[in-house]
Amino acid sequence: MDRMIPVQQAVCAITVAYNDPDGLKCLLESISAQTRPADGVIVVDNSDKPSLSRENKLIADFALSEIPGYEFVASPVNRGSAGGFKMGMELAYAKDYDWIWLLDQDGTADKVCLGRLIESSGKAGVLCPKVISIDDGMTELFFRGRLNSLCGSFPVLSCPGKELDITMFATHGVMISRAAISETGYYDDRNFFCGWEDHDYSQRLKKNGIKMLLVSDAVVYHPDLIAKYKKTKAGRFHWTSRLYMFVCSRLPLPAFLGVVAKADMSTELGIVRKKTLVALIKKHIRGFKFWAALFFSFFCLVIMKASGKPVLFVDSLKMYADMMHD
To answer: Within this chain, do residues 252 and 277 fall inside the same structural domain, yes or no?
Structure first.
């Protein structure tokens, strides 16, 4: 049974800055322009160079000077999006904010977004806006879980009404209640670095019975990453893997480690992606799902090998063996 969350209002916006002062400027300007202002903003800086960190701070100081609860925190090392958001969530939680609003630095928010989200507070522990492509301002991006109906279970492509129960979210624009955080904790930066930490958090919220609600008249803007990266090896691996993990979260189907086998494991990115997918399987796929994943991965790897595609056959299957002994 879904638990209702008391209506409370103090909101802290959090973003993680990394090597993109121009993007950060656009985001922070959209935060400061909210018709219902945020009560606080925490900018966690992950930049590689001190010069970029200083530039980010100058931008943040200027854009957020009217917000009394503004804070700029420079991380001594790049903690990735998972670690950066976790740091911000911990700081905001310690300051007793009732809601924590997470925003990616490469996106923006419509000026009435926060106000519209707050109008739905009390109905769910997690509130998500509609995500529109920042490139054309029209295309609705989706990755919000599934809609269950008498005809079956279908991906949420758009919200047919003002509000819709959802099963998962991507980070940009999500607003998480203090009650949800107290029960679920923060983003997992031990198993995740940049990518899938939001998927993992969605699964943990579901396990705790925390309701997630899509609010269609609250809008944020974000690059269409599927279109941006679909032609690259890393992009195909990332989005195909997200799709399979999404399916696995709903049905007793495999994680399809044939996707991992196609990635270039000699690169740092490939190693991070491999570690991330393994962490998701360990945390969220149990029992029959695990054995189905093992069988189907073996089948897919055989087909790929027979068709002449380069695969890491032994390494891919070894990941399952390692997980069986954990």
So the answer is: yes
Q: What is the pLDDT of residues 72-103, one digit of tens each?
A: 999 988 999 999 999 999 999 999 999 999 99
H or E stretch including 236? helix 233-250
For residue 284, the enclosing domain spans 230-324
Same domain, 134 and 265: no
Query: Parallel, antiparallel, or unpaired: how do β-strands 140-141 and 108-109 relate?
Result: unpaired
Q: Judge whether 273 and 260 are in contact, CB under 8 Å.
A: yes
| Alpha carbons 193 and 296: distance in angstroms, whole number | 27
As a whole number of angstroms, the distance between CA 114 and CA 84 comes to: 22
**pLDDT value, residue 311:** 63
Q: Give the pLDDT confidence score for residue 306 in this predicted structure.
A: 80
Taking 50 as the pLDDT cut, the residues of the chain under it are: 1-7, 147-153, 234-237, 239-240, 244, 247-265, 269
Note whether residue 243 is domain-resident: yes
Residues 253 and 154 both lie in one domain = no
For residue 259, what is the enclosing H or E element?
Answer: helix 258-262
What pLDDT shows up at residue 299? Answer: 73
238 in Cβ contact with 147 (< 8 Å): no
Residue 92 tokens read as 């905001």
The residue among 140, 107, 127, 144 whose CA lies nearest residue 28 is 107
Instruction: Report CA dihedral (275, 240, 293, 211) to the nearest 10 degrees.
Output: 90
Q: What is the pLDDT at residue 260?
A: 46
The pLDDT score that the predictor gives to residue 320 is: 66
What value, to the nearest 5°, has the Cα angle with vertex 268 and ends 17 and 190?
60
> Is the separation of the CB atoms in 245 and 196 below 8 Å?
yes
Residue 160 located in a structural domain: yes
